[in-house]
Design goal:
Elements: E1 2-6, H1 10-22, E2 26-30, H2 33-42, E3 47-50, H3 59-68, E4 74-79, H4 84-93, E5 97-100, H5 105-118, E6 127-130, E7 133-136, E8 141-144, E9 147-149, H6 153-164, H7 172-180, H8 190-202, E10 211-214, E11 218-221
Parallel strand pairs: 1-2, 1-3, 3-4, 4-5
Antiparallel strand pairs: 6-7, 7-8, 8-9, 10-11
Pfam families: Response_reg (PF00072), Trans_reg_C (PF00486)
Keywords: DNA-binding, Phosphoprotein, Transcription, Transcription regulation, Two-component regulatory system
InterPro entries: CheY-like_superfamily, CusR-like, OmpR/PhoB-type_DNA-bd, Sig_transdc_resp-reg_C-effctor, Sig_transdc_resp-reg_receiver, WalR-like, WH-like_DNA-bd_sf
């Protein structure tokens, strides 16, 4: 996968470049908007990480121009501008995601992986599974060890998301945006409560435990019991 980072702050840009290269990506780094725009227009990138406050051209303008030119690269805006209005503006202009500085690299990496998966060919999967848990998508049913488990619609969507991203750490904010289609920027416990209820249904009476808390980062679904 080939990524473009457009970031004028040298330390942040190099931090991103090095971390993404170590995570297995091919990365180009530009330190101003015009160079980044030229690369984005003339080369093919799977994803572009774009700062908004650039010295020569704003990230807003770049997103708009790239989309008007028909460029399909996933775009993740990374900015110190963190108001809801800023996020809505970025998404309306054509960005695929928005993260606020300062940021957790682990969460950034999780969001990048989630965005890149959108462009991957989707297999025609009617069932998702982990250990002895089976989710039948067309029938909207879930069983574990052959026992039917009744889930609410939101619990079903949450479990489906975990199953599609098995063994990956999913930050709370990413779960919120993907399952609830909302941004939870406060210390709300909505995600924790929902996951606790899901655990009570699929894990309490079964082994191995599937949903694990990764302290300081989020949650992951893994058939290897770590707790």
């Amino acid at each position: 996968m080939k990524l473009l980072v457009v970031e004028d702050e040298p330390k942040t840009g190099e931090y991103l470049r090095q971390g993404l290269v170590e995570s297995g990506y091919v990365v180009d780094l530009t330190k101003n908007g015009l160079d980044g725009y030229h690369k984005a227009m003339t080369e093919d990138y799977d994803l572009i990480i774009l700062d908004i406050m650039l010295p020569d051209i704003s990230g807003w303008k770049m997103v708009q121009s790239l989309r008007e030119a028909g460029k399909k690269s996933q775009i993740l805006l990374l900015s110190a501008m963190g108001s809801i209005d800023d996020k809505v503006k970025g998404l309306n202009l054509g960005a695929d995601d928005y993260m606020v500085k300062p940021f957790s690299f682990a969460e950034l990496l999780a969001r990048i992986r989630s965005l890149l998966r959108r462009n991957m060919p989707q297999q025609n999967q009617n069932q998702l599974s982990a250990a002895d848990l089976v989710m039948d998508l067309p029938k909207r049913t879930v069983t574990r060890a052959g026992k039917r488990i009744d889930l609410t619609n939101k619990e079903f969507l949450l479990l489906e998301y975990f199953l599609r991203y098995q063994n990956e750490v999913l930050p709370r904010s990413l779960i919120a945006s993907q399952v609830w289609d909302m941004n939870f920027d406060s210390d709300t416990n909505v995600i924790d409560v929902a996951i606790r209820r899901l655990r009570n249904k699929i894990d309490v009476d079964f082994e191995p435990k599937l949903i694990h808390t990764v302290r300081g980062m989020g949650y992951k679904l893994d058939a290897i019991d770590e707790e």
